[in-house]
Design goal:
homodimer; 259 residues; alpha/beta; Carbamate kinase; eight-stranded mixed beta sheet; two-stranded antiparallel ribbon; 36% helix; globular
């Protein structure tokens, strides 16, 4: 039987508040079994870029990673945030190891192909080195991924943290029974986006098609859920979406996706 | 018989020049056998701090790490520099893994005790987790240490890279036959500081005492050499001082210290 592994992603909503981050990290440290944390960026990168006098580069509402901004996200995501999260987990007796995709070549990516928009130094993932991540896990180490990868040719790349969580979960499902958990600011997938209590508790691929055809699932949620079902088809056992508190208390409302 | 391990430290003189860094990393990647890289900071941290409008804090000519400067060195050393070095080594097929002391708790330190000067968030090393570093090395991974450690209570600490190299070398000498190499801007220990050709090729503890009593070794070099002999007494096989080129070509002038 495969060992259980939880891959948990947190975003800016947790990282931006010192109290919330600390509370989440306590819960994460206490979580039993093998686990991996993936964290996004939050407002700190914007603050640092501002204080350095850098203008954010946007095209069509999308953020572009130019060279100066790549330096900032590398510093902030893989340096400041990652090392502070790791140090805090260590204080809570969780043997965390901070990683960018370059470290031990755990995530190889390529610079996003330019179609309509040149996203600059944005990375699309090619492969996850599951053998070395398994080695870390089996040695009692908890990997903590920042949203930076590389192209194995010396170039670091800014990479979507949701995608990192999904690709790491997919890749490790060969060796582990993986549960992928996305912590965000809602209680889960909602019937009514205005009502955080209207959580749809279970969605499988069949009911998902129905919810889509009925227009219940809102447009913003669609790409996220498509990725989740993609992970399920790639071997991930279940995907859970909800507030960070759910990792402490599974009675906290959340949505569970299965095939 | 113990396996050979090289612990190599580079400082700002290598890091500040992209050409020199790239040339050094090529040599380092090609170096046979087990190896560890320790890197210092260089001028990038000062540049970033300047661009953020931070004033360097100095007391009696010594740099003080206040909270804002700790953020900058964490970002620059453990983020920007470390991840770029790791990505460049990966491109050269060296399976590098970037580490701060917090990662997998590899280096535990304490905030320097305040005597005459309060150095702020400066770390003095308490212990190196040689078991986990050995695990990495035996898995074909090359650890790359930045000059950031932690106190296991959630606090990151700015830590002297020379000391990290020495402490890592000392600790690993239990399991490996360790050679500690300090790359700096001179050809080694010089008889005449003005003459880079006047290298003293071999120094042992006996000739060291003689050189000291004769006043041949200049004051700036004394604390560095004291630390080197301390490492030798702690089990490190030999300590080498010289220019970065020596790791490619041992015919390059250098000083070798032995007991």
């Amino acid at each position: 039987m495969k060992k259980q592994l939880s891959v948990i992603k947190i975003g800016g909503n947790v990282i931006n508040s010192e109290t919330e981050l600390d509370s989440f990290l306590s819960d994460f440290a206490e979580l039993q079994g093998l686990k991996i944390l993936v964290h996004g960026g939050g407002k700190k990168a914007t603050e640092i870029a501002d204080s350095m006098g850098l203008e954010p580069k946007m095209i069509g509402g999308r953020r572009i990673t130019d060279e100066a901004n790549l330096e900032v996200v590398t510093m902030v995501y893989a340096g400041l945030l990652n090392k502070n999260i790791v140090a805090k987990l260590q204080a809570k007796d969780c043997n965390a190891l901070g990683l960018s995709g370059a470290d031990a070549n755990v995530i190889e990516a390529h610079k996003r192909i330019v179609k309509e928009i040149d996203y600059g130094f944005a990375g699309d993932i090619d492969q996850v080195e599951n053998k070395i991540i398994s080695l870390f896990l089996n040695a009692g180490i908890t990997p903590v991924f920042s949203a930076i990868t590389h192209n194995k040719k010396g170039q670091l790349l800014n990479t979507n943290a949701d995608t990192i969580a999904a690709e790491v979960a997919n890749s490790l499902s060969v060796d582990f029974d993986v549960e992928l958990i996305y912590c965000f600011e809602k209680n889960g997938v909602l019937k009514d986006v205005e009502d955080d209590e209207s959580v749809i508790e279970c969605i499988n691929s069949k009911s998902y098609e129905l919810l889509k055809s009925e227009g219940v699932i809102n447009q913003g949620m669609l790409p996220k859920l498509e990725n989740c079902f993609n992970s399920l088809q790639n071997g991930v056992g279940s995907v859970i979406l909800g507030k960070p508190e759910l990792i402490r208390d599974r009675n906290n409302k959340h949505t569970r996706l299965t095939l």
